[in-house]
Amino acid sequence: MLPSYGDLASNGELESRVRAAHALQSPCRLCPRTCGVKRAEGERGACNAAVAAKVFRCAPHFGEEPPLTGTSGSGTLFLSGCPLHCVYCQNYRFSQRGEGREVRSAELARMFLDLKEQGCHNLNLVTATHFLPQLLSALEIAAGAGFDLPIVYNSSGYESLETLGILDGIVDIYLSDMRYDNADTAAAWSGVRDYPAVNRAAIREMWRQVGPLVTDGAGVARKGLVVRHLVLPGGLSGTEGILRFLAEEISREVAVSLMGQYTPCHRAVGHSLLGRRVSRDEFAGAVSCLGEFGLESGWVQEVSSDGDDECLRGESLEQNV
Description:
The chain is of the alpha/beta class. The protein has a single domain, classed as Alpha-Beta Barrel (TIM Barrel), CATH 3.20.20.70. The protein is built from eleven helices and ten strands. Strand 7 and strand 8 (221-230) form a beta hairpin. Residues 307-321 have low confidence and may be disordered.
């Protein structure tokens, strides 16, 4: 078994990972876009991130999958900015418009410790890659003060193997999207044509690192991979191809969270293809693919009410840092 990040902190390995992450930040190669911008000199790339981490919200969260939420919530840190530019993003206020507050590593560490003190089951880092050096620095500080919660890396699934290598032995739970099975679709709706290939390679590496989901006696997640797939209207997400890949090239034991709550947000409102919810028949077809490919571990989320037109997440999160 790999050592915990606490062990990595005590033996100096975590400090080495911090240095490796900083080396990827300027010129920036933290995400697969490899913008090459010199963030240390004030340049900003596709994620619009500066050097200091920017936090939109830090609080217990009860809307994740049951093993992550448990009874006391997932200690969620929403980071501002994102390498993807999804036209339907529910979190566009901070992922694309950049709302939030810049914080230094010492304050980040205090946030980690506060979440532990509030009884959260884990530290849930949402879209964290572009601030990886700062977050690892904060983790090193927090670990020295007794922080020991499992770390959830909540990702779009657009991750480089080099960055994932830095996280090996640090991340306990990967909570990763698989959004598209088709390069043209990925380019049209998220601005990255290479998403399917990059995403599949990342999922393979995440699985290698942490394997199937493991829970404790109370059903709370301790380690493993959870793959989220949001079903888009008109079959745009390529559900069948994604689930086939998971079953045939990863494992039928992988935990899959099949999501039917797509709601038009951001630039998808009024869009000819993305401007509607997923129909119940469309989602039923996606659910049937789970059975067809023998994927029995995970969760199926309900299709949202056809009468509710509110953007569910992007407008409901309040800035709280």
